[in-house]
């Protein structure tokens, strides 16, 4: 795997060309020597999007800066040239001299779209770790949209649950007279019945009084029958008429039950209103319970869709997944996994897929101890990757390239 890395006049670098052997390429040197500048230049070189803008990429006093990577196995040369403070000009050539017309697409194809720094990944917060991982995974859904849907359903369930509890409490404290009539009774109607009965009674009393008077007249006239025959006939006729009127009268009405009915009107109507209010609150409670059940079903559907989508996705490492909070490994939040396993998983993510240009760039290599560095070398050998790492701790200057004042020592 013959590879060459070259950086000229980029930030603190004058000119450095590396012809590494083996999978691990350590760039060492004191602070300010230029090792970060070298790593930054290579990182920007293989960024197809050209968005990693450095405020002043060109070394003071120089007109332009350049970074170059040559891979003899891939027969490709990648060049980025800076002539002003921007993302620079990206060019890709075949080693026979042919120039590719769409360099960004070629670099994206060669690298798989992104050079992943496993140590930088470990230093991200949980949300940004999740986002970085998702750039390497093709999910059949938008996990943030699913999270928003879930939050909405949970809010609706919470609101419906509050309504259910409030309305159940209201029902528990309310009377529910099941034997009350469906409609309120009119006190005026009952009073009208009483007045009609009283009018009829007075009419009856008048008729009975007149009948008594007529009977007295008959008795008086009978004694005077000889001289009062004409009066008798008239009185008899009147008796007959009044008797017929009496016989046509309805039976006497007992108004006491009506008085009792009137007295019970307020109590009955209060029971009717209580029953009606209870039914209304019961209907509201049923509607709230229906809304709560619907929200629960919606949450179950969202969770099922998310589970199925995550199960269908292919992650770089078995056991790796994501949730709305971040990355998980074997169902445990990634931040709770032991540090050795986190580094191994992070490197596995960095080397996921099958890119043609198998390159990993690690900027904060001083965070790795000797054992971690050895594990990365082993994994790089196993997977056929070249790891370019900025590191100056332990034996870095003995095993790597040392930079002094912008050039190789």
From TrEMBL:
Specify the protein name: Chromosome partition protein Smc
Alphabetical UniProt keywords: Coiled coil, DNA damage, DNA repair, SOS response
Q: Give the gene that encodes this protein.
A: smc_2
Instruction: Provide the coiled-coil residue spans.
Output: 197-245
Give the PANTHER family listed for this entry.
DNA REPLICATION AND REPAIR PROTEIN RECF (PTHR32182:SF0)
**GO annotation, biological process:** DNA synthesis involved in DNA repair; double-strand break repair; SOS response
Q: Which domain of life is it from?
A: Bacteria
Instruction: Identify the InterPro entries for this entry.
Output: P-loop_NTPase (IPR027417)
């Amino acid at each position: 795997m013959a590879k060459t890395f070259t950086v000229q006049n980029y930030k603190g670098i004058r000119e450095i060309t590396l012809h590494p052997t083996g999978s691990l390429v350590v760039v060492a040197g004191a602070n300010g020597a230029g090792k970060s500048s070298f790593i930054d230049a290579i990182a920007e070189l293989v960024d197809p999007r050209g968005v990693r803008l450095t405020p002043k990429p060109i070394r003071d006093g120089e007109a332009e800066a350049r970074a170059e990577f040559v891979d003899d196995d891939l027969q490709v040369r990648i060049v980025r040239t800076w002539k002003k403070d921007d993302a620079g000009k990206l060019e890709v050539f075949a080693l026979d001299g042919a120039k590719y017309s769409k360099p960004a697409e070629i670099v994206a194809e060669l690298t798989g779209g992104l050079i992943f720094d496993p140590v930088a990944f470990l230093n991200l917060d949980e949300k940004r770790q999740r986002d970085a991982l998702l750039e390497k995974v093709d999910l059949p859904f938008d996990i943030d949209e699913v999270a928003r849907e879930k939050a909405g359903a949970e809010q609706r369930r919470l609101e419906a649950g509050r309504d259910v509890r409030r309305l159940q409490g209201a029902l528990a404290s309310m009377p529910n007279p099941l034997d009350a009539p469906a409609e309120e009774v009119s006190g005026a109607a009952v009073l009208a019945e009483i007045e009609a009965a009283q009018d009829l009674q007075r009419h009856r009393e008048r008729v009975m009084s007149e009948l008594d008077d007529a009977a007295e007249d008959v008795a008086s006239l009978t004694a005077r029958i000889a001289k009062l025959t004409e009066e008798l006939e008239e009185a008899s006729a009147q008796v007959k008429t009044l008797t017929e009127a009496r016989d046509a009268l309805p039976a006497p009405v007992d108004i006491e039950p009506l008085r009792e009915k009137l007295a019970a009107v307020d109590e009955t109507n209060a029971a009717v209103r209580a029953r009606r209010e209870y039914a209304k609150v019961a209907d509201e409670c049923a509607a709230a319970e229906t809304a709560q059940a619907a929200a629960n079903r919606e949450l179950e559907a969202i969770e099922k869709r998310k589970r199925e989508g995550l199960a269908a996705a292919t992650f770089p490492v078995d056991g790796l997944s994501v949730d709305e909070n971040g990355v998980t490994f074997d169902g445990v939040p990634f931040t709770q996994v032991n540090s050795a396993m986190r580094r191994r998983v992070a490197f596995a993510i960095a080397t996921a897929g099958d890119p043609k240009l198998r390159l990993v760039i690690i900027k904060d290599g001083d965070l790795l101890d000797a054992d971690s560095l050895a594990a990365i070398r082993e994994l790089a050998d196993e997977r056929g990757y070249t790891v370019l790492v900025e590191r100056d701790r332990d034996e870095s200057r003995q095993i790597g390239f040392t930079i002094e004042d912008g050039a190789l020592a």
